[in-house]
Amino acid sequence: MPAQTQAGDPHHAIVAAWRAESARLVGALTRMTRDVALAEDLAQDALVAALEQWPAGGIPDNPGAWLMTTAKRRGIDHFRRADVLRRKVAQLEHAGAGEEGTVPDLDDQVDHIEDDVLRLIFLSCHPSLTAESRAALTLRLVGGLTTAEIARGFLVSESTMGQRISRAKKALVQSRAEFELPTGRERVERLDDVMAVIYLIFNEGYAATAGADWMRPDLANEGMRLARMLATLAPDEVEVLGLQALLKLQGSRMAARLDENGAPVLLEAQDRTRWDQLLIRRGLAALRRAEEMAGRGRPVGRYFLQASIAAQHARAERAEDTNWRRIAALYDVLATATPGPVVEVNRAVAHGRAFGPDVGLAVLDALPDDALGDSPLVPSVRGDLLERAGRHTEAREAFTEAAARTKNDSERLILEGRAGPV
User: Where are the membrane-spanning stretches (predicted)?
Assistant: First the structure.
């Protein structure tokens, strides 16, 4: 949806327009120039022009169109300068008569906004890039975040993040990544990569892996925005709708995940009146659309199944009303569809709630000792199940081990609290 014109603070209008339009802008310019780095430079030039001109001249009626027109003009100027340089070099090298460079006619190119943004998302998540680089580049090119904002979200210096983004762009050039939508099996595989990156961004915001903060809401909100954008661009994909539903349903709990003093609150102790009911309604609506498609024979996967699990929590007015047997059954299906140690740990939690802690411990004990390396997840879940089983000494040992493993300060405080006084 194009940015809305608003009276008032020009700087606020510029920020809003950039956040709303940057993905379309960079996507269209990449299609026109076939150079993602140049496209971003041209978009940034348009942003700088807005910062210079809008405070004095007023906010344009259509900010997005203004930015696109300005960027196109900068692009035409760039290619004209490059063309002049080529001609001078050719003359110096005694090039053959009649040779001329070509300046792309950016104004005559047809805009395909939705396809451009989708192409840009696929390009940002190219398989030649690491997961970390894909996330950073997606936030930069599609999310419109600054390097400093991305760096803060992932707890690295601005220079480190700048280098990561720069290397990612170079890797795209070296791999000769095409700015085209993949088809067939490649499209399915790449769409999985895109969704995985969006989920990674959301998860890092919802439950930070390191640092002092329990959550980083800006990253979580950006993950939800990217999922919504992807669902708009690919509305017939069950898993895309599942991802949108999952992030909205989980994101609805964020306000309740901290108490009035800023201390973390676990799911079962949360004040559910603080859950965002609008996000829940939207998440459940996305899930219903996915269910309708699944009912017509469309395949489902991990995001649809996780959204179905999240919906069970969202529909329970009180923690004790949660249908844990249904959740355990869904985790059994998820473990078959996408097996992995994280799924098994969560399955242990569900079976422990549904059928008793000993059943959950049996699921957990089936995992190899090094299933998740030095992650705190296994010992923290083991501690919870042992505590519920009345095995308090063993539970304390497990929570102490988990506290020693975590890199997140808030999580460490929770685990130390559950372990009890030394």
Answer: none
Query: Helix and strand tally (H, E) in the chain?
Result: 18, 2
Q: Which of 104-118, 191-205, 276-290 has the lowest mean pLDDT?
A: 104-118
Beta bridge partners of 258: 264
Nearest alpha-carbon partner for 249 in 198, 310, 291, 208: 310
Q: Count the Cβ atoms, other than its own, within 10 Å of residue 15.
A: 15
Q: Who contacts 120 (Cβ-Cβ below 8 Å, separation ≥6)?
A: 23, 26, 27, 30, 36, 141, 142, 179
pLDDT of 83 over the 60 cut: no
> Is the distance from CB of 388 to CB of 400 less than 8 angstroms?
no
Q: Which residue has the higher pLDDT, 41 or 104?
A: 41
Question: Rounded to an integer, what is the distance from CA 119 to the centroid of its chain?
Answer: 16
Tell me the residue type at 107.
D
Q: Is 110 helix (H, G, I), strand (E, B) or coil?
A: coil
Q: Which domains does the chain have, with CATH numbers?
A: 10-97 (1.10.1740)
Paired residues of 211 in beta bridges? 408
The whole-number pLDDT of residue 2 equals 44
CA nearest to 144, candidates 64, 61, 246: 64
Torsion of CA 357, 363, 364, 365, to 10 degrees: 110
Residue 320 amino acid letter? E
Angle ∠(37,117,286) on CA atoms, nearest 5 = 145
Q: How far is CA 357 from CA 30, 259, 347, 349, 361, in A?
A: 54, 28, 12, 8, 6
Residue 131: phi, psi to the nearest 5? -60, -40
